[in-house]
Amino acid sequence: TQLLEQSPQFLSIQEGENLTVYCNSSSVFSSLQWYRQEPGEGPVLLVTVVTGGEVKKLKRLTFQFGDARKDSSLHITAAQPGDTGLYLCAGASRGQNFVFGPGTRLSVLP
Amino acid sequence: KAGVTQTPRYLIKTRGQQVTLSCSPISGHRSVSWYQQTPGQGLQFLFEYFSETQRNKGNFPGRFSGRQFSNSRSEMNVSTLELGDSALYLCASSSGREAGELFFGEGSRLTVL
């Protein structure tokens, strides 16, 4: 069974601060995705990474896939209250469905 | 284009009853996946249907079942409900290609009393 761990579990910061959340596994994934879920809604895809060492930037968000394709990080620069939500990573091996981590619940205070 | 529609949004059942949840995927999407989300376990994969066939299945008991119709709409059924089945049930539609984006509905929140 593939398991994904995410840290920290909870994070509360002030607007303007930077933060990094992590997603780790002992398994190798062919692709990894990050989603954000807001209260009362389903998760929404932020990014997909498929190549070890890959770095993708989406405005203030930077995603990195580990060289061994077992881990990933999400860095947010100058966090804003609109970034508040549950951040989920999900990994998939070839032919398998995505397995989700437990999530990091981020709260950005104005 | 219209998003993923799940019905009902909220429902309350008692132990021993059964429940059927419905999911209408995005037009043109042939894959529908179901997930159970709870505070303690996070998002857990139930099963995926593609072109009316179950393509993958998670580690849930046989009380959890599903099906997909020719128009790609999907239903999941939970029989003999237990208190632990209380959760948010999320449906995700996709094109079905590998590593494709999952488009989630808002979920059906089930409370079992």
Question: What is the helix content of chain A?
Answer: under 10%
Specify which chain pair forms the largest interface: A-B, 26 and 23 residues
Mean pLDDT of chain B: 94
* Relative strand content of chain B: over 45%
Describe the overall structure.
The complex is a heterodimer of chains A (110) and B (113). Chain A is globular, with a radius of gyration of 13 Å. Chain A has no helices and eleven strands. In chain A, the strands form two sheets. In chain A, strands 2, 4, 5, 9, 10 and 11 form a six-stranded mixed β-sheet that branches. Chain A has 110 residues and is mainly β. The model of chain A has no long low-confidence stretch (mean pLDDT 93). Chain B has 113 residues and is an all-beta fold. Chain B contains no helices and eleven strands. Chain B has strands at 5-7, 10-13, 19-24, 31-38, 42-50, 53-57, 64-68, 74-78, 87-94, 103-104, 108-112. In chain B, the strands form two sheets. In chain B, strands 2, 4, 5, 6, 9, 10 and 11 form a seven-stranded mixed β-sheet that branches. In chain B, strands 1-3-8-7 form a four-stranded antiparallel β-sheet, with no helix packed on it. In chain B, strand 9 (87-94) and strand 10 form a beta hairpin. Chain B is globular, with a radius of gyration of 13 Å. The relative contact order of chain B is 0.33. Chain A binds chain B through residues 1, 30-31, 33, 35, 40-45, 48, 50, 88, 90, 92, 94-103, and chain B through 4, 33, 35, 41-45, 48, 56, 58-59, 90, 92, 98-99, 101-107.
